[in-house]
Input
Amino acid sequence: MATALNQSKGARVGCDIGGTFTDIVLAMPDGRLFVNKTSTTPDSLGRAIVQGLQSLIDQAGIRPEDITEIVHGTTTASNTILQKVGANTGVLTTEGFRDVLEIGRIRTPTMFDLAWKKPQPLATRRWRRGIRERIAADGSVVTALDVNQLVEETGELVAEGVNAIAICFLNSYINPAHELLAKTVLQKRFPGVLFSVSCEVLPEIKEYERTSTTVVNAYILPAMRTYLARLREDLQAMGIQASLQVMASNGGMMGIGAASDKPVFAVASGPAGGVAGAARIGALGGNDDMIVFDMGGTTAKAAIVVKGQPSLTNEYEFRDGISAPSRFVKGGGYVLKVPAIDIAEVGAGGGSIAWIDAGGLLCVGPESAGAAPGPACYGKGNDRPTVTDANMALGYLNPQALAGGSLPVEPALSARAIDRHVGGPLKMDTLAAAHGIRHLANVSMARAIRAVTVERGLDPRDMSMIAFGGGGPLHAVAVARILGIRRVLAPIMAGVFCSAGMLSADAEHNFVKAVLRPLDACVHGDLARILGTLDDQGYTVLSGEGYRGSAARVSHYADVRYLGQSSELTVPLRSAAVDGEVLAQLAADFNALYQQTFGYSSEEPLELVNLRVSAHGTSPHRLDFGQCRVDTSALQGTEGKRQVSFAPGEAPRTTRVMPRAGVGTERIAGPLVIESYDTTIVVPPGCFAHADAIGNIIIDIEEASA
Output
């Protein structure tokens, strides 16, 4: 496979498909960057990429074959789950364990919510079958696999329309023989069915978590494979033969082959790119601890960067409403036990629709107008108000057009929608209703930030916020004031920053081996051999993607818990040459991390649950934010003044509007609206803005929150 690694020169592309816009960044070998925002095409997501990419090729004056690598963040996997349009999914499991998905963890996310309903399993019960086989906890075979029953049960599932099957046998993490035999037999007998095997997806202890993750992988397999194959065909039709990488949930890249086999590792694909880029930006500016705030057209996301590294988790619950990989609130969604950036997400974006509930209360989201028909001001048939319409009515947005003039808007339609659906029913004028919509969205987004700060024992007042996405800089200061944050950074290319962040990421693949042994009973040589085997697997995968020599490296981790506990923490392992000193340091590091996480530690003996290896591949053409130069057309905006309403009950203020390119290193006092092709930055009264050496806009909030 051709990659950017074996090219002396070549352009790279980062693209992120959102619910409203598809963002694309073209990085030239000389450091020039070209950006494009194109309305997402829900009927064929890849079409927006092809349209936007063609525009950038023409703008940069290059040929399609000059592009050597495309890094892609996609919502295909997450949307498939949200919309419940995945495969007809079957499950083959050990006899007696058919109901693992329903039983789950036997807990609810909120103790006193009597209206809470448990998510319906992605594999309905009639398509889950128990197979006669049994492997003991020590890996010994208790009951041999009944191949005849296996084939018979699978045949019945296929006859009923099942087209993807998860194979999850008991204790396969310690001995995968039965799962691998089942896969071999069934692939020969049923070549048209896709199989997801737990020992390949998640070879770890915990039956529910392993089963849930494997079922999610099976559920999204057909959609992801079809999408990636079609995208590859569309790009080849343009003359682009570039390597296609997919952003993984952990902030690294994975090849198209890995993404097609294990799409569960890319469910949080798009947002991860922004967090990876935020860590790079923070390092350049000396900001090791940052809150990452990403607001798009459909959702808003929050994450944190601590000591220069994104906060990671090995487990994520994908659910409606607010999705957060919390260690403390579980049971509300579909468990994905995969490495992921610790991101909280809420259904509050620019396209989120404002509505009045049965009790007469104003609500915002989670339903979104998306790209089609979009907010009311787009004039494409939607007459319900959105957060974007509220911002338009208040004067924050350009009243002629968005996205650098490519998207005409009609402010009168925003006002009409707000009056009809919010202002009229609540007996409020247009501005008051618009402020109400905007404030509700801000509070919802602040809740996501609290989920990754306060709920993790961190004080947001001690951190700066980096805000990006089409709506991030538009709402950042208002959200920051709710939380007491005093500094906001709007990075270069803020409106397409997730796409840019993808180009700064490394390739990353993760490998795990269950150990399940008291730490003081571990044999040093055995652990070293396990790590050596995982290292070899990592280097083999990286080599297949073109990362060799100094471009490839591995890092080692251990999952540790107190003996008798059911949950573990992941701790960096200081050396792969395991000896008594390394294990003693591992124990000390675990106790320190446990104290930091839960507020106390113990002298109880420890258990080593898993050993992990992360394999990283670094491209020599990885985007360096300190050296890149954004095409000046992306920085252009209008120059002038307009009336902007900053607070309910106050008269609109005459506010200066200036292009992003006009902001220098000298501080400018608000009120101020800064426009560029990809986003709008709002600097309210009581705040000051300036640009740093890279071109990021820094906003200091010097007036206390109301």
In short: The first helix runs from residue 45 to 60. Residues 44 and 227 are 9 Å apart (CA to CA).
